[in-house]
Request: fold
Amino acid sequence: MATEIRRRTPDEYLRECEVEEQAVTAAAKGNLKVFLGYASGVGKSFRMLDEARRRQERGQDVVVGAIQAQVSAEVEPLLARLEVIPLKAGNAIDMEAVIRRRPAVCIIDGLAYDNPLGFRNAARWQDVKDILEAGIHVIGSINVQYIAELRERVEAITQKPVSETVPLSFIQSADEIELVDAPPPEADLDSAAESVQEHTERLSRLRELALVVTADIVDQQLNEYLERHGIQQRFGSSERIMVCITPRANLREMMELGHVVAERFHGELVVAYVKQRDITQADQSALEARLAIANAAGVHVEILEGSNPAQVLLDFARQRGVTQLFVGHSQRTGLARLRGSPLDKLIWEGHGIDVCIFPQ
Amino acid sequence: MVNQPRGKLKIFMGYAAGVGKTYKMLEEAQNLKAAGVDIVIGYFEPHGRRETIAKTDGLEFVPRRSMQYRDAGFEEMDTNAILARHPKIAVVDEFPHTNVPGCERGKRWEDVEVLLAAGIDVLTTMNIQHLESLNDQVWQISGVRVRETIPDWVVQQANEVVMVDLPPGALVNRLQRGVVYERAKAERALQSFFREQTLVALRELALRQTAHEVEHRMPPEQQKGPAPNPQTGHRILALVTADPKTAMVIRRAKRMSDFLGAECFAATVQANGDLSGLVSADREAIERHLNFARNLHIETRILEGTDAASSLVDFARRNQVTQIFLTRPRRKAWNTALSSDPAQKIIDLAKDMLVVVVSDREPAKRLA
Reply:
């Protein structure tokens, strides 16, 4: 597929301006870097403070604005070399002291902490926003289970309520995110509430979640980058399945496999159909029955319009970075083939998109 | 020899040179040594990186062996020396490395297999672009056809796969500071493999693959979605022809099978039931493709038949195949029954099956 420089649609242009505007405001603000982990003991604090050490060695003015009271033996020597601004009562960051001190870089552990009543902000991540606003770079850390939008998934894994959270948009706004991956730390023998196997499985689930969330954030950043540079190329680094609804499509089967494939690849499922003007009454009601199936399954259906259905599907698929197109077998055979069917067009022009042809 | 329990394999997975795989691996080696574990360095590639080299301080090295090939000297891992030393754990850098001709085995991952079989645990490093089933996607993303690949099953049987992450911005910084490569090589790298969008896309691939590896290592009842069931599960068949794009179809079919927990076959249809009737170029191509499939642990068949399409579809029906993977039919093939390209005919015949036409994944043409 060729990278095209092409005229942007007004919508894309507008979005581009917004992205650029964000870039301009970002220049005056501090940068945010987030270390994302999934459990204590995977080494977030170590990696964060090791980065602090390297920056200090390169001559940057680094201070610690928040760190947990108890640190591991390997973190201690790193911490000993850094200036620490002590936390206030109730583990709140001493905002006045941090902003008065005005370091180049401020280290903030445990982004999900809530502040006690009476402080400037209700939560630590809001303090971080203010520190960034003041032009100070922040390096912070958080575990995946404290992302607000993941609460249900996390609670299903841990069977424990999550109280303190940070909105996903805050993590997405970070200039850099670095995943701290490691095999699940060994079970603490004192807390024998669950078996070693249960412990490992629970942590593996959270680990998987941290990997996927990071991949999703990276994917979003990739798309922003491509948009900003007017690059049409899509990379297929995430599997996206697009189910095309047609009057005779075996929608249940297509959706069932679509869901499984999307889930197994940690990808995404999109369902679409192209409005057709000249279709028979029978086809119209067949189509409506299929749309009802999709709606009942709670799936959002993209409704597309255009005189050339195959072209409309391809344009949409390219725009969304689709890697697998689910369609029904063509009804045409023999001579009709010579004119080239819409299916042929999908097969021939869908560069980087596998065409999966289902029984009708 | 006594029946040794197999050694454990741990892979440090990255997405580019310079993300810190070797550094992380050596850090772990140091921790293990400090804990009193008998650990040695079986192979280490210093790349002139100071911080990484410092991490080897105090670790025992098993000397490399010197090899001569075409009047040049090469240093390779000395697998026999490691076997003789028989540590608890061996650190082996650069898992996908290809050995110089004259070594007992062609690939370093095969040497690692020998160490594991002897009961030695191994820590090793690789980048995502060396995973066989992602070869076409990596080409699409980077414009680079990676030649040193590792079959997916080798990675699947590792006990642990750990992602070594670093934001691409920080990696580019390292390159510009000359930490990863010397200046001239760094400049070239920034123009090709290390372009920002390439790095971001490779990083995403590595994260998703590692998520899959984590999922793959959970007990079956913990895995998401319906459990793979040989009765109701998927069976995937890849069509093998002399077309060079067959390799792409095989990779994609295998990747889909692995993620769906499906069985995977690869078959070619020949009039004699063997490859004897073919002109040598075609025979070699098909043999190469069948070998390629077998190396990926795919069962291969040569079916007998004069009509490739109907023989393949019959075979698929008899064997409860649920998905057939093909290359794109050649553009002018659909109007002639005499065409040697069976793809279009299979699409027409197999209307009771899922037919997957694997698309070309080509890199963006470079502008400017």
Observations:
- Confidence is low (pLDDT under 50) at residues 1-7 of chain A.
